[in-house]
Amino acid sequence: MTAPLLELRAVSMRFARPLDTAARIARALGANVGEAAVHALDGVSLAVAQGEVVGLVGESGCGKSTLARIAVGLHAPSAGERLWKGRPTASLRGDAALRARLAAQMIFQDPLASLNPRMRVAELVGEAPVVHGLVQRAGRRGYVAELLERVGLDASVARRYPHQLSGGQRARVGIARALAVRPELLVCDEAVAALDVSVQAQVLNLFAALRRDLGLAYLFISHDLGVVRYLADRVAVMYLGRIVESAPAEALFAAPRHPYTRALLAEMPRLEVRRKRFAAVRGEIPSPLAPPPGCHFHPRCPHAMPRCRMQRPELAEVAPGRFAACFLDVTAEPQ
Amino acid sequence: MTVATLRVENLRTHFFTRHGVVKAVDGVSFEVRAGRILGLVGESGSGKSVTGFSILGLVDPPGRIVDGRILLEGRDLRALDAEGLRALRGDRVAMVFQDPMMTLNPVLTIGTQLAETVRAHRRVSRAAARDEARAALARVGIASPDARLAAYPHQFSGGMRQRVAIAIALINRPALVIADEPTTALDVTIQGQILAEMQSLVRASGAALVWITHDLAVVAGLADEVAVMYAGRIVERGPVDAVLDRPLHPYTRGLVDSVPSRRARGEPLRQIPGMAPSPAALPAGCAFRSRCDRASAACLAEPGATLTRDGREVRCFHPLEAP
Q: In chain B, what residues touch A269 (CB-CB under 8 Å)?
């Protein structure tokens, strides 16, 4: 079996705010002052195979954007390993490191914030491939035109600045820029969240076409379950820094196993469901500064047992290809 | 027959800018009855929020309501002066906005803001206002409301803030609530909680609710009726099942088909070609015609509203079914 394109092994990410002077003095005098640390990711393992679309869903603060940044190599994890085609990227040097970095590209949520307002589209899209020697400076124009055509933009857009474009056009420019360095993996962090439905459909179709034509793999992060169900082969569900369930998309949406996934799917508004009785999940997402002990979901879980308050359930294979981190799945079949 | 709680007739709100007249709302009519929920759906720039603002008299210059009538329980709001409108807002009509941080005062406690809303409209003692404030917080599902009255907005999470904004909107038992994308910034499980509460509060108080959103799926789950806006006009309006299951207007059809959950995986989404015209430069006739595959020469004229047998209204020369 070949190694997956990207693999994250037990990756953790901790952001700590260093103590200010007053706190340091207090500590020197014996006060019990600790650093405020956020465990954005807590032992997350995830793999994306060649040409595969992995969907990652979760609510705000669950760590999905941090995971995206680690997946493209923008952050180095505090613990755990990132492997590219089976090789730890931390050990790659020189040309191999550069190639691995270029092969994973990110599409951001807000294209206006991620496109330099003083650069024309031609420079935005054409700069990186020239710097990295993928095309000659002389060939840049043609290369940019080709990329713009691929993402469904008219070649005349090359002369425009980002503020002269519509939201949908900017999203396409962001995609063209990522494609310019010939990546094998696109990490999309809420890439369609800001778009209107009709434009969102156009961009989703574009993602599907790029996958078909270029064999791209995706890590597609979204809070919109409908979008993820439509695109992904496999879906991982995150809650407060941990993956609580991962399964093939169809199986997950047909029969979710983790209580959190079930709650999420039950609350998802659907076009087909009319005059629904919204029956809310209790409680709020706890702060990642002070996550509850044991299973992070237990304060909101209708099935919580004493054990859930003490012990962390590990992500375990509960059926072929299906993983869940819940004690219910170990002790008994959920109803 | 009873009077509708809100009746909007031929509302036109235009913005007079240096670059010309922007017809943000251009001939919108609808009504909502007590205890009913109307979903007002549209994409960015369709005029759905300006419609909501117009009803409450919240349109600032260069914008102006140039025509139409807004009848709240039979009374024309456009005939009222600023003072009259002020007395009505927060009492008979209330609005919930997308970002509660913009509506809550950051330097006043939640209790003060709730009690202020009561005392601005009714002569009650401070103690009685505080009791009402406590009850209002409890109604929107905030735990230990007594302690929370002393808290400031920044001490709440986004979902809790929105609950507080809803509690303020509902505290004087308004006849009409206008909610402008109140759950758009919230997570799915929190959105579910807010929708559940809005639903039961409207049922309990008999208020009419206009829910402005771009999210068709939320409207499907919440509303009794839906009105679809495009380029400043309502292109289709009717009971939620009829409109979403058998749309008559090609734009409604396009919107429904764009929703990813309707499609099997891998099957291409049907998309509406092109993009919405700028409201500053609307084409003559039907504003959707340049994106519509049914458009003909007839569409160069502006389509009027056609009433159908099942109580719908559509503005199209070539509806998808014979009305």
A: 191, 195, 215, 217-218, 220-222
